[in-house]
Amino acid sequence: MSTTGERPVDALEREALCDLLAEVGPDVPTLCEGWTALDLAAHLVLREHFSRWGERRMAGEKAKGLPALIERLRAGAPALPWRVPGLRTLLNGTEFLIHHEDVRRANGLAPRTGRPDLDALAWRTARLTGWQAARKIRPHGLELRVPGGPARRFGAGGAVLTGQPVELLLYLSGRRGIAQVDLAGDPGAVAALRDS
Q: Torsions phi, psi of 7, nearest 5?
């Protein structure tokens, strides 16, 4: 689940996102409202190196420029907690996967296919975020389904969200406008999920 070849999925996604940021440049949009690629890169650096930050620190990181931020991201995260096996995959792998798609999708790039490591990570994380979403729509239930694959139910009846694991994760992490999913089921549960 965590590796392609010998490299952990979070390391692969870190590298791929850095490559994409270098390719698209600092000024392209992302799916993070109001953020450019430069904003996103600064966020990723700050997230790994500082427990708290405000606008001033964000501006300071952005002033260093995208190439410097990419270089810092490529250098890797501090040892704790970011390099602890298991945690690194779940925390950084998920973060880089979602933000990689934030840049890709905002700039017209198609969903990636043929990456079982990303699908496994996304399904693991979607099960956790699905549980959180289901709590918000109680008394309705929520079911996550992968076509021809696994399903996970939280409560009885309710909304049924169907899609590939990465698409489910994107929907559950607030990227609803671009997530390629089908939402069906009880109308009240569907409305509650859309509004949550």
A: -100, 135
